[in-house]
Design brief:
This protein is α/β, with parallel strands linked by helices and 269 residues long. It has 9 helices and 9 strands. It comes from Rhodobacter calidifons.
Length: 269
């Protein structure tokens, strides 16, 4: 069975699609068969990222390791059984079609609460929640007292993850490995950065997730998307010498992939 990696965050602009693409492509480069689904049926940033990659490879005459992206299959409403949800069935069929042939399935969720996103969270073996490194995005995970700095309680999103964990437990499935990834980290060890880090560590002990550093704010990520490229593709596309920023970014990706602790995966790039 494929291991399902879900990338979810109900706020936009946290780097979900960039995280999805780099994780999925890194797995492909490590020799794994990787399926890809995008549940944001309007924006489709992850899907368009992979489409850009395919177009670039065709024009450049390259063959780069690439996730197998597929659209959700359509469902005839007349074929639904009583009480059956069409969106549930679309996602179930998409995963069933890839499950036997893939090692991993990477799923990008929309930056809002949808039925598809909710179901995907219950299917996650690994849940990655990218978070901009600020208290604005911290609010996605928990409500905080602005005066005392104390955590008042979990957010609606955290409660949804808790519900997904309960459903998996009732079904006898392995617990979700929930990982909060701190993106857009500042280069300086600023006071606010330390406070966010301390708050995340405290919250991680209370509601059960691991904290990893993700990607710093870099121009390179905006330049890669139109060609569908990742940090790991630069040498294959004619960039013989990487600058210090790109080398640092590759190390961030290497650290992230190692920190995910995916079974039977040796990170070697």
């Amino acid at each position: 069975m494929a291991r399902i990696i879900v990338v979810g965050n109900e706020k936009g602009g946290s780097g979900k699609s960039t995280t999805c693409m780099h994780v999925a492509t890194a797995l492909s480069r490590l020799g794994k068969k990787v399926g890809a689904l995008d549940l944001d049926l309007r924006q489709r940033s992850f899907g368009r990222y992979i489409e850009n990659r395919r177009n670039f490879m065709q024009e450049a005459g390259l063959n780069l390791p690439t996730p197998d992206y597929r659209e959700l299959p359509e469902v005839d409403p007349a074929s639904l059984a009583e009480g059956e949800n069409a969106q549930d069935l679309r996602l179930t069929r998409a995963i069933e079609a890839m499950d036997a042939e893939m090692d991993y399935i990477v799923i990008d969720c929309p930056g809002s609460h949808t039925r598809l996103s909710q179901v995907a969270h219950t299917l996650a073996d690994t849940l990655i929640t990218p978070l901009n490194d600020s208290f604005v995005d911290f609010d996605l995970l928990a409500r905080m007292d602005g005066v005392t700095g104390r955590i008042r309680g979990p957010s609606i999103y955290s409660e949804m993850v808790w519900g997904a964990r309960q459903m998996r437990a009732q079904a006898g499935l392995q617990p979700i490995d929930w990982i909060v990834v701190r993106n857009r980290l500042g280069a300086q060890a600023m006071h606010n950065k330390k406070k966010v880090g301390a708050a995340l560590e405290e919250l991680s002990r209370r509601i059960g997730f691991r904290v990893l550093n993700g990607f710093s704010e870099r121009v390179i990520f905006r330049e890669l998307f139109p060609r569908g490229l990742t940090l790991l593709d630069l040498k294959d596309t004619g960039v013989d010498q990487l600058n210090l920023s790109n080398i640092a970014a590759r190390q961030e990706l290497r650290d992230l992939m190692t920190g995910l602790r995916l079974p039977s995966l040796a990170v070697g790039f």
